[in-house]
Amino acid sequence: MVLFLGVLFLSFGIADAFMNDSLRIIGIIISLRMIFFALTLVLYFKFDQFTRWSDYATWITTAKVMAAVIFLLIFSLYESPRIVIQSFGVFTLILIFHLVPNRWLNSALLSLGVAFTFLALTLWRVEALSAREMSAVVFYLVLTAVINSIRSHQIHRYKRLQFLNSLELARLSVTDDLTKLYNRKRLNEEIQQWIQRIERTNQPVSLVFFDVDNL
Fold it and tell me: Which of 12, 87, 99, 147 is the most exposed place for a label (fewest CB within 10 A)?
């Protein structure tokens, strides 16, 4: 998904080229988007090295923050920004933030942050915007951020419950219901692991059985 984020963010450059007449500004914008795409490539090939969810979440959050900063920086470079078209870009960015797996709170805060920062830049850059148009933009941006945050929270909750249920099923599959001890299935799994370790290390090992009568 992070590579998808990079490709999609890079494709926004097509709209930038249509909306800017200055080749210098277009060149700066494309360069910024290429920098972010390079970052996503690095993350894509680095994911296999992550052993903890916290490491993954930190890097993904960093990538999303960079995407938001670059998007807002590009918006500030526009000589004649068009608020309606730029709003579509913010809508898409918020949607992507919630599609790419991350901690829910991080995605929600980033979505609201990019929405309100965009609105602040709009008030600063666009003088001809009427109060009604600004109100409509505020309404739809906040609504988009809130709806995506709620839906993302529901998905995270469902995945967490699914994960906990899978752990419980895995525990039950290797545990005797009466004694709460490991069953024959777990014994076979342990034996296979030890056989592999013996073949790899060439070290001796012993196996001891206890036969408990009238258990």
Answer: 147
pTM: predicted TM-score of the whole model, two decimal places: 0.68
Token pair for 99: 């599609």
Interatomic CA distance for residues 165 and 146, integer angstroms? 29
Find how far residue 163's CA is from the centre of its chain: 18
Residue type, position 50, single letter? F
CB atoms within 10 A of CB 122: 21
3-state secondary structure labels for all residues of 9-52? HHHHHHHHHHHCCCHHHHHHHHHHHHHHHHHHHHHHHHHHHCCC
pLDDT along the chain (215 residues), means of 10: 77 82 86 88 78 80 88 84 81 85 85 88 77 82 87 85 86 81 82 84 80 68
Per-residue pLDDT, 215: 58
* C-alpha distance from residue 35 to each of 18, 29, 30, 67 (Å): 21, 10, 9, 10
The pLDDT score that the predictor gives to residue 10 is 83
The DSSP output letter for 82 is -
Q: Residue 81 carries which DSSP code?
A: -
3-state percent helix, strand, coil for the chain, nearest multiple of 5: 80, 0, 20
The beta-carbon contacts of 177-186 under 8 Å, at least 24 apart in sequence, are: 179/215
